[in-house]
Amino acid sequence: SPKTIRNGPISFPDVEENTFILNTGCTITAGDTVELRNTVSFPTGRHSGDFIRVKAIIRDAQTNEIRIRGLRMTRAKYHGPLFDWKLNEVVMRLHINEDDPRPPLEQGLEEVPVGNILRKRDCVITHLGYPALRFGKIPPQEYLGGKDRRKDYLFSYGRLVCRFVYISVHAGSNRSYEGEVRRIYRREADMNQVPQGTPGLGASRMAPINVDDGSAPITAAQHSPSNKRPAFGVKERKYTFADMFCGAGGATRGAEMAGFKVLYGLDKDPKASKAWKMNFPSATLYRMNAHSFPPPEVPTSSLKVDGMHFSSPCGYYAVCKTRPGKNDQENMEAIYVIGPLLSKLKPAIATMEQTTGLFTHKKHTRAFRMLLNDVMNAGYNVRYKIVNMAEYGVAQNRKRLLIIAARHGFPLPPFPSPTHGVPGTGLKRLFTVWDAFAPLRNDPRTDDPHHNPGDLLQKFEQPYDPKQKLLNCITGSGGDNNHHFSGTRDQTVRELSLCQGFPISHHFYGGRTAGLLQVGNAFAPTMAQIMFGGCLKVLKAFHHGLIGAED
C-alpha cells in the first residue's frame, strides 16, 4: 500500500455537501470550474489565480469549515515555453506519488478553502486540438471598446479551455524527477463537445476573434487522434529503428538486442561513424549534420521507422560543466533539431537520452521546456524521468535523463521498473565490475586493439574489490576515479565498454582517446535494451489490438 495517501475517501468529521453559495450569490456544485484569487504580484500584464474543476464540496462537521476538492488548472503562460501561450488556454497540473496506484486524475486532486474562490468560470476540458471550443460568446457591447477591451473581458470572463495535463511524479521527496506532459485523453474530456458547430474566427459579431497574445500566432487546428489503429494487421512484422546522433552505436546495439530492425543511423563524427558502420554493416549510415537531415535526394518515405532515438550532444548541459567550450553553441542547439525531425519523419515512438543537468540545473529549465514543447508540437505525448542505470544492470552509477514520446494515436509506453537493487529490495543484486568483466575471463583475446593493459601507464591508486564495486559515471575521458580494481592502472577501452553494457564483440574506431569518447558518450546498451524492449512490447500489444491508443 502507498506510504502517503492524497485525498483519500471522505470520512467523518468531513461530510460531502451538494452545493455551496458564494458571497456573490452564485451556486457552486461538483462539475463546476472556479477561479481562485491571485496571490502573486506581477508588475504588468493580465494575470490571474489558478482554477479548480470541482469534484467534491467538503464540510468539516466539527468546525463547519468548507473546502473544495478538485483538479487544479493553471494558465499555459505560467509554464514558460513548455506550452504555447494562447489566451485562456489552461493546463491541468497534477502532483502524484510514485507508490500510489490510483489514476493520476484521482490522486492528483487538491483541496482549497472556499474563501480562496474568486468567481465561477466557464471551462471545457477537451481532447480536441487548438483552436476548437475557444472563448464562447462575447456580449456585443464588448466589441465597441476595441481589441484590448475584448481581451480584458475574455481574460476575466471568457471560456477557458484545457487540452493538456502536466503531471509531476514524486518519490518520497519534495523534488520531482519524473513527469508526463500530454494531451487530454478522450475518456478524460468533458462530454458533449461539438466543435463542428463553432463559427470560424471573425465569422460573425458573436464568433471567436483573434485576441491572442502577440507572442504566439494562431495556428491551424490539430486533428484529434483517431481511434483507428494502423492497418498493419496482426501477423508478426519487423519493427524498424533509426538512431540519430548514433555515435559508435550504444543505442543501436540496445535496439538490436531488444528486437528492432535497425534501418539507419546519423552522426557527423568521422571516427564514431566508422565504428557504427563496422558494427551495423547492413544499415545505412548518414554521416552529416542533423540540421541538414534528411539529404534532399533521399525521399522522406524511405526514412519512416517505428522507433527513433536521439542522444544529442550533452556536454553543454552536463552537471560537471564549469567552463565554456568551443562547441557550446552547436551542442546547445542540437536538441532543437529533434522537434523538426519528428515532424518530418513521424515515428510511432521516439526516445531521448540526455545528461541530468538539462532537467536539474535551473539555468537550463527554459531549454528543457522548449525541447518538450517542440516534441509536443510535432504531435507527441511525452514522459521523462531521471534514472540511475545501476538499477537496470549497468555496472556504474550513471544517472541520465530519459524521455519517451508517443505520436498521437499510439499508446505512451511507461518507463521500465528497476531490475537491480541493494539487498532487501527483492530485486537482482547490483551488477558489479567483476560481473561486467566476465567476458574477459571467459573469452580472453590477445588481438583486441581496445584491451591492451600492458600499454597503460603504471598508477598507484587504492585497490578495491570488484565484486562489491560499481564504477563512477563513465565519461569521454573515462570518468573520475575509474581506475582498474588492482589500483595499478587505468581501465582499458574494452573494460569501460563492458561496464557500459556493450558486448565484447562491439567495435570501436581509432586510438584510446577516440575509443574513450565513443564509450563515454554512448547510451548504455543494457539500459537501451530494457527501455526499447518496453517500447516494442507496447507497440506489439497495440498492433495486435490488446491495448488502445490511450492505455
From TrEMBL:
It comes from Zopfia rhizophila CBS 207.26. InterPro entries: C5-Methyltransferase, C5_MeTfrase, SAM-dependent_MTases_sf. One of its GO terms (cellular component) is nucleus. The lineage of its organism: Eukaryota, Fungi, Dikarya, Ascomycota, Pezizomycotina. Keywords: Methyltransferase, S-adenosyl-L-methionine, Transferase. The active site is at residue 314. PROSITE patterns: SAM_MT_C5. GO terms for molecular function: DNA (cytosine-5-)-methyltransferase activity; DNA binding. Pfam families: DNA_methylase. GO terms for biological process: methylation; negative regulation of gene expression via chromosomal CpG island methylation. This is DNA (cytosine-5-)-methyltransferase. SUPFAM superfamilies: S-adenosyl-L-methionine-dependent methyltransferases. It is an enzyme of class 2 (transferase). Belongs to the class I-like SAM-binding methyltransferase superfamily. C5-methyltransferase family. Its EC number is 2.1.1.37.
